[in-house]
Amino acid sequence: GDFILFWAASKQLIHGHIYDIYNTAAHDAVMQSAHALSHPYKLPFLYPPSMLFFIWPWAFFTYTLSYTLWGLTAPFITAKTLSILCRNWSITAFAFVSPQFCISLVTGQTGLLIALILTLGFYYIEKNPFVSGLFFGLLIIKPHVAFLVPLGLIFMGRWRTIIGMMTSATC
C-alpha cells in the first residue's frame, strides 16, 4: 500500500535527505529498512512535495507503530466527515463496513483524507468562502483530484474561494 511510501519519505525528510525522496533506489532502501516490503518491484514516491506536510510526523515512530496509528486515525476521519455531511449515525456505521473504508484502512491509501478535505471545502463554501478555498487548496496532494475543483468554482463564480485555494495550494 501507499503508507510504506509515506513512512519512508517522512524518514528521509527528517534526516535531511529530501531530494532522495524522489530517487527510487534511495527511497526503496528506506522502505526495505522497515522490513515491511515483500515484493520485488520498486515503488517510487509520486506525490507532490506538499504531501510531506501531512506525513512528516510518521518519521518519529517505527513503521509498525506508524501504520497502526494511521489505521486508528481512519475511523476518526471517516466519522468526522460523515458527521459533517449528515447527522445519521446509521450511515456512519454502514461506512465502517464499506469496501472503500476497508481498502483505505488496510492499504494505507489517502482516500479518507481526500474525502475529509473535500467535505470541509464544500461545508464552508457558503459560511466562509476563503476558508473553504484553504481546504480545497490542500487537495494539491492529489493533483488529479484538485484539477476539477477550480473549474467548478469558476463556473459557480466563487472568486473568494478560488483565492483561498490558490493561497493554500502555493504555500
Structural features:
mainly alpha; 11 helices; 171 residues
Tell me about this structure:
Helices cover 68% and strands 0% of the residues. It is mainly α. Helix 4 (63-85) runs parallel beside helix 7 (111-127). The longest helix has 23 residues, at 63-85.
Cα distance, first to last residue? 28 Å
> What would you call the quaternary organization?
single chain
Query: Which residue ranges are poorly predicted, with pLDDT under 50 across at least 5 consecutive positions?
Result: none
Q: Helicity, in percent? A: 55-70%
Structural class: mainly alpha
Mean pLDDT: 87
Q: What share of the residues does DSSP label as strand, in percent? A: under 5%
Which sequence of SSEs, written as H and E, runs from N to C? HHHHHHHHHHH
Q: Tell me, what's the shape?
A: globular
| Count of beta strands | 0
If helices are DSSP runs of H or I spanning 4 or more residues, what is the number of helices? 11
Q: Which radius of gyration do the C-alpha atoms yield?
A: 17 Å
Largest sheet: none
